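REVIEWER CHECKLIST
Item 1: Sequence provided? yes
Item 2: Single chain? yes
Item 3: Sequence as submitted:
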Amino acid sequence: MESTFDILKSRGFIEQVTDEEALKGILAKPTICYIGFDPTAATLHVGSLVPIMALMHMQKGGHRPIVLVGGGTGLIGDPSGKTKTREILTREKVEENALEIKKQFTRYLDFSDEKALLLNNADWLCTLGYIDFLRDIGCHFSVNRMLTAESYRARLETGLNFIEFNYMLLQAYDFLHLNKHYNCPVQMGGNDQWGNIVAGIDLIRRVEGRETFGMTFPLIITASGSKMGKTEEGAIWLDEKATSPYDYYQFWINVEDADVVRFLKLFTFLPLEEIESAAPLQGSELNSVKSVLAFEATTITHGAEKALEAWKAATSTFGFRGLEDHLFPSSAIPRDAAGDDLSGMPSSTVEQGLLEKGISAFELFTSVGLCSSRSEARRLISQKGGYVNGEPVNSFDEVINLSHLKDGRIILRSGKKKYHRIMVK
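Item 4: Structure as written out by the authors:
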């Protein structure tokens, strides 16, 4: 049987490990691992999916993952990967965010019968005595060595404040606490956490005399060089209140061609041999492969029912059907045609009288939320980025009325990706 380490490596999860052979030995039998997530917002975004998927693979492999919500470290702010100081959140806001993130994780991991644990480091960090912490923990850290860590070194030119400088000590203490109280020997995280993970391993060796291990994942950069999940419209969130299942699906359907196979490996559980079969495809042939990626990724985050709604809406609109049936037999994507189901598309209902009278295109685009303001709507339409039923709007004050109804609806589009369905009552 393939080990969890081999699965993670073959699917592209592993960037660095502290001792590969020893770690492979540890993961050859059930063990405990953890990843920390600071509650800087009420929801995580797709940039957190690589560590989340890694935890899911660990649990599938018989290991027990610990999700550590940083209710304590979130009060400080991790300087890793940042060019300026993070906004300092109030204790109440951090606690509120932590509760929301806890709920979010129940969609990804099975916490029944302690198959996984969900902890909050505020439970031990917020009760630490400062003098005791400096004496018992701070004495094991060399300032000179800390300054060589990439997360600190990159910030020295722009400014690193003292509160951020303490972050490494707190994360190292988390690992020490989890090792002592939960027998956790493995910490994982994004590659920007390498210095913090190594610091925790060194602290445990000094204080407890135990060997522990670290593993980091690549920070996902798309083929065009942008950060994973950063779009013109903003971050893609994992909570449907922030990003609807349809928009989430559309994010995956619109990934760059060069990223499709890599993202199938990272963000789905489809067999590698099926994924590799799509590697030679190019151009329009990849459209149906992207629909598989979008369906599988949306199922993992939002469930099969909402993924199906989004798939039906997208297939009705775009018609991406074909190769997925024989390339991906393991996918749960429906084999029948989607028909004309647009229920998953963001929608609004308007009074019939409004369309009888007629409404300017820029006002309609603004009222349904495709544009944040009338000036933005005017600019969009003037730049030929606004569409009604697939046809470009010629002028921002073009009147939209009952003549635009097709099968009882009007489909608006902003740019290449954002759609909205209007129905009449």
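Item 5: Key structural point noted by reviewer: The two ends are 58 Å apart (CA to CA).
Item 6: Recommendation: ____
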